[in-house]
Amino acid sequence: MINKGSKVLLEVKNLRAEVAGVEILKGVDLTVRAGEVHAIMGINGSGKSTFSKVLTGHPDYTVTGGSAMFEGKDLFSLAPEERARAGMFLAFQYPVEIPGVSNSALLRLAYNTLQTERGLEELDPLEFDDLIQEKIKVVEMDPSFLGRSVNEGFSGGEKKRNEILQMAVLEPKLAILDETDSGLDIDALRIVAKGVNTLLTSDNAVVMVTHYQRLLNYIVPDYVHVMDAGRIVRTGGKELALELEARGYDWLRAAA
Amino acid sequence: MSTALQNLVNQPYKHGFVTDIETEAVAKGLNEDVIRMISKKKEEPEWLLEFRLNAYRHWLTMEEPEWANVSYPKIDFQEIIYFAQPKPKKKLASMDEVDPELRRTFEKLGVPLHEQKLMTGVAVDVIFDSVSVTTTYKAKLAEIGIIFCSFSEAVHDHPELVKQYLGSVVPSGDNFYAALNSAVFTDGSFCFIPKGTKCPMDLSTYFRINTEGSGQFERTLIIAEEGSSVCYLEGCTAPQFDTNQLHAAVVELVALDNADIKYSTVQNWYAGDENGKGGIYNFVTKRGLCKGVNSKISWTQVETGSAITWKYPSCVLLGDNSTGEFYSVALTNHMQQADTGTKMIHVGKNTRSKIISKGISAGRSSNSYRGLVKVGSRATGARNYSQCDSMLLGDRCAASTFPTIDVQNTTATIEHEASTSKIGEDQMFFFAQRGIGSEEAISMIINGFCKDVFVHLPMEFAVEATKLLGLKLEGSVG
Amino acid sequence: MLTKEQCYEQLLLGKTVKSESWLSPIRDKAGTRAQALNFPTAKQDDWRFTDLSPLFQHGFHPVDSYASVTLADIASLLIPGSIRLVFVDGCYASQLSDLEQAGAGVTVASLVEHSGDAQVEANFAQHALFDQDTFAALNTRFFEDGAFVHVTGETATPIHILNIATKRDTSSAIYPRCLVVMAANGRATVIEDYAGLNDGINFSNAVTEVVLNDDAQLQHVRVQREDKSAFHIGHCSVDAARGSVYTSTALAFGARVSRHDLHVTLRGEGAKVTLNGLALIGGRQIADTHTRIDHATPRCISHQLHKCIADGSAHAIFSGKIMVREGASGTDSAQSSRNLLLSGKAHIDTQPQLEIFNDDVSCKHGATIGQIDADALFFLKSRGLTEERARNLLTHAFAAEIIDMIPVPSLVESLGRTILERMNGNSAGGVSK
User: Which residues of chain B lie closer than 8 angstroms to A114, CB-CB?
Assistant: First the structure.
């Protein structure tokens, strides 16, 4: 939902970044306001996943130029956990497994860390259980997943739903979904999309990084950006995604 | 990540203070006269003196073991004080008569000696240097026939039981340190759970070495008669001294038909400083005998302290259908060395054993699992499952796994698995992205790594163990 | 019957073999070490499971004359189409050897005849160190001849090194020796084969050294099928340089008491080693395999699968150590020990060991000891097989997993037959009763 008057959450200017000495991002500009849904599309290797990792502070990537402000704060002066506490959330493309650490323990620790950050009371295990039982419905997960180790033995679809469950609990201001649709069957895709749509309000925003248009049938973007060779080369409305689906990426690359 | 790790694993030793209390100690050194004196001071019967002297004479013929994956300067056994006790040694009528200084010591350690303040439902025997200072809930337990007292008291009040079982599981000449202990042991805990009795509360012994230069040689004997069960906890601390101190305990467990003994240890002896100066040499012999059919002995240990740990809590599965279990977490840091594991000796039919060992090495420490699973030719249908996982924090530590499997029966099924891992960068980033700082993330990962062991600890110990590993998160244990 | 000391004294009375000027001092030094050392005892951790006492009862004499062996005598042991080097009681038998297939880039010859070769001088006794090893010291002091394989090119023809022990009036001490040097990018398959004729009570004390230079690849097969009264102690040291690939398949079927020590040092980055092993024994046999894989450099890979099958009142031992040194980051190692006990009197000890001094590694090991799967047995019996046939079939399948890894089809086939014979022998009362 576009509301030109709403608050700017993220403002990225001329962002450059490299990994292992190779420049991947070559000057990215992006502004995300509260209430908006953005999609960043592009072929493999265009830099779209790198963009999401650089914004959230993955240690493998080095920022070499440009700026990124999150609600007026310089993102790059914040540690990854500080960015998370400020309200940035990354749904991982490849969710990691943490043997022996239960889903509910992780969620409660993350939630209580945020509560403390916001000057609110921490929840004890019982109170937290009430909260989580509500949240888990959003992603139609079986409560037994809460007691299991984080992502251990989960199917691809279950891992992605688990990411959205974490998003539901942490209620971020800006959620970046990195290829959340990859490896999902149609039912899982529908559940994930429903979860994201449920969580969308006029105060938060979502950036979807995706290769395909099909996720956008379920989560309708306000803006579609096409990334190529480390830059955003075209920005349009949701119809741009359909055009990409029909014509491929090559015509845009040639134009750029 | 490495700074957070260092902060976490380098927390100062909190129990390193010395209690200023008048102590009576015999001169250092060991000979038959010292043993006679210990025995006399404790007003022991002749047979016990004989037991000690036999052990001593055998010990003189033995060689100090060198096979473990540990190295340390040779111990001068004549430089050790073999007996030290807080003065005055008179019979205490109640807890309130315990020396106030001593009481404060234990309160500081989190072991209050007043029964009202005790951990609910846990009876405690407290061993200070060589002797037992007090045992709580004794009278209450006596009402249902459970004997829980210091070893010295047991020698006086229940000599027939002590005589019957002492050395029956760990013979006095079993190994070098067991022989030494048998010669000079000074006190310890004694438990007897009569037929058909489920011990209504956890029994606990708290060990504290206080006097510099003294060795601690305690002896624990637990007997669970037919159909009984007991849960026993053991905790240990010591002050910080620059010299190394020797702790050579012997623990014997006997489980008769259908009896069940669960023995848990949280060992946090002083580990020496970061350069390896000082610390306890923890050379302990622990063995349980599943004597009766369907009996069960379960060892759970969390080993975080000591300069050197050398212990292999073992089970001899004699009774048919008996079960032995070993759950261990060993954390080493700085210059610590741990060589620990278990022996499961399958003798009876359809005996089962399970081994879960988790080793965490940091700093320049060395952490070894050493185990033996032996299936005798009569042990038809024996089964064992072992899992030994190591986690290395940093690139200057070492982790080793030395399992030995020795099978002489075709119907046995033995499985052993081991793996080595580290904390992955991607795991750390995941935690950070969920707003969780690196210190807590590491705690959580380590806690998760140890979970299979922690679930076997009684609640109070699980909490203590979690804290000990620097883990702040409640609720993920148990 | 001799005592242990007398047995050792007798071994020290071995024959002095005249050598090249560079080799003589090495032999002398080995002799001095042999004098200073003695048989290992059960107190030494590496020997605590191995009962050598049956060996001590015999006096083993030096081989002082050539035995007469014909090609017909060894026909069943031959591998058709191979390059063949035959040794009888440790002496090179040129009339039994067939080096015709050795083309360009492949040298297969008597070690003594090639002792002037720079590769021999540069590598001999540099890898199998005798300073603390009694048996390596004795071998280095007394070996008569050995095999020298030098591969600079690539050969698809297997190289068969056949060591035959014969029966003599007195028991012999035999010292097979083998040196394999793979030049950079060299590729070959070498089969080291130890067999006996006519049930002699001999003691074969073999030492093999294998050197792989950068990116070389060697398939190394070792077959120990000595006579049932023989004693066999073999040591093999392997040195693997950068990018090299070493694959070993070692089988132990024979001997009253046998021991195989295999030490692999991954000295160059990215080297890869695969060790497959099988001990299949019965009667009163003892077969002991000790392996050590030393990850000394980064990003090396090691995989190991060892199987023991023990019948009768046999005793099989496996001890496998994986060491990861401080700088060896990116190490990937997996070790598995699988064991099958076929008789109530048989006995298996297994000791897989990890020693790790680096946090950036992926290491795992596993061990199982079990019996023949009851469900599989029932299934086969329900299809009409007798208990014995069903058991043999399943045992054979268990063993075949290793044998099938040998890259020489004719050898796979003949060894498969050997196993079946052995098993039938075992169920009829054991190999060496």
Answer: 435
- Report pLDDT digits (tens) over C361-414: 888 888 998 888 878 888 787 787 888 888 888 888 899 899 999 999 999 999
In this prediction, residue B467 carries a pLDDT of 66
User: What is the C-alpha separation between A249 and A233, in angstroms, rounded?
Assistant: 11
- The CA distance from B223 to B239, in Å, is 32
Q: Do B410 and C365 touch (CB under 8 A)?
A: no
The string of pLDDT tens digits covering residues C413-433 is 999 888 877 776 543 333 332
Residue B290's nearest CA partner among B262, B320, B318 is: B318
CATH number of the domain located at residue range(s) A8-98+173-255 in this protein: 3.40.50.300
Give the Cα separation of A149 and A104 in Å (integer): 9
State whether residue B34 is helix, strand or coil: helix
Q: Which residues of B touch A (CB under 8 A)?
A: 424-427, 429-438, 440, 444-445, 447-452, 473, 475-476
* Subunit contact B403:C351, Cβ cutoff 8 A: yes
Q: Cβ contact (<8 Å) for B420 and C362? A: yes
Q: State both tokens at B381.
A: 């249908």
Q: Which residues contact B55 (CB under 8 A, 6 or more apart)?
A: B172, B173, B179, B180, B181, B182, B183
- Please report residues of B whose CB lies closer than 8 A to that of C371: 410-413
> CA neighbours within 13 Å on the CB side: how many for B470?
23
How many other CB atoms are found less than 10 A from the CB of residue B110?
13
Q: Within a domain: residue C151?
A: yes
Total residue count of chain A as it appears in this document: 256
Cα–Cα distance, A40 to A52 (Å, whole number): 10
Quote ipTM for the complex: 0.86
**Mean predicted lDDT score pLDDT of chain C:** 91
Q: How far apart are CA B397 and CA B361, in angstroms?
A: 6
User: Domain range spanning residue C159?
Assistant: 4-268
Residue C269: name the closest of C239, C295, C230, C299 by CA.
C299
Of B424, B432, B475, the CB nearest to A81: B432
In a domain, C404, yes or no: no
Q: In this complex, which of C329, C345, C366 lies closest to B416 when CB atoms are compared?
A: C366
Kindly determine whether residue A84 and residue B435, on different chains, have CB atoms separated by under 8 Å: yes
Cis ω for the linkage preceding B88 (within 30 of 0): yes
- pLDDT grade for B392, boundaries at 50, 70 and 90: confident
Task: Tokens for C276, please give them.
Answer: 């497959």
CA distance A206 to A224: 12
How many structural domains are present in chain C?
Answer: 1
Whether B119 contacts B188, CB under 8 Å:
no
From residue B328, how far is each of A170, B311, B389 by CA, in Å? Answer: 35, 11, 10
Instruction: Say yes or no: A148 contacts chain B, CB-CB below 8 A.
Output: no
Does B444 contact A98 at a Cβ distance shorter than 8 Å? yes
Q: Considering the domain boundaries, does residue C291 fall inside one? A: no
For chain A, the structural domain boundaries read 8-98+173-255
**What's the pTM?**
0.80
Name the closest residue on chain B to residue A170, using Cα atoms.
B434
Does residue C187 form part of some domain? yes
Paired tokens of C125 = 């006794």
In this structure, what are the phi and psi dihedrals at residue C49, rounded to the nearest 5 degrees? -95, -15
- Ranges assigned E (strand) in C27-145: 83-88, 91-92, 106-110
The nearest CA of chain A is from the CA of B409 a distance in Å of 35
- For residues C368 and C352, give the distance between their C-alpha atoms in angstroms, rounded to a whole number: 11
Q: Strand, helix or coil at C401?
A: helix
| B23 closest CA partner among B180, B218, B209 | B209
State residue B132's pLDDT score.
Answer: 66
For the stretch C209-258, pLDDT in tens is 999 999 999 999 999 999 989 999 999 999 999 999 999 999 999 999 99
Chain B interface includes A89 (CB < 8 A):
yes
